[in-house]
């Protein structure tokens, strides 16, 4: 059964010879007619031309031209941030496209079924949660579809294929993997020990260097004190000798008449 809903329909005027509008064509089934096998929206089937208010089952030249204009404006506005183009049908077609993408996303349940079967094989406890999520997606798709359209029965779940079943790891490979892990942990521990020893040696070298610097500083201070003491003794002896000579000279000068 084929249903057609006209978007932006205008009342026909007798003075106009031909009037072309855009409509969205829907089909009763698992997915819209404009949804391809890949799950993407086909603009050529989504926006079909209407001549004189009569619906066409296939895309007409007007629909193809409108789709081409819509794609050009959409690509231009997505590439360029400024100088955006405007078209009288752009907002309506863009809104309809977003609605159909949401419907198509909610109605493509093939990937959901595959993920549900894989999760059920890997973890049986999560099968109940996945079934609840699938029921929610089905209720969403039914609410978005037309009220007059009856809900279609869900396809029965097929048994998981042997390729999707989890592969068992042989015991030999598992043991080798455990041995590799143990060897890697032992190597990491040895590397940590070597690094700790190197840090301890560096700390000891730093302490010895600091002690040597202290000894050199104290030795320099002792040497400087010794030189100062000798200089002071020499100055003191020179002062005593000078004073003695000066006193002798004073006595000689005073003894003269």
TrEMBL record:
Its domain of life? Answer: Eukaryota
Specify residue ranges for compositional bias: Low complexity.
140-152, 160-169
The segments labelled Disordered in the record are: 117-178
This protein is called Uncharacterized protein
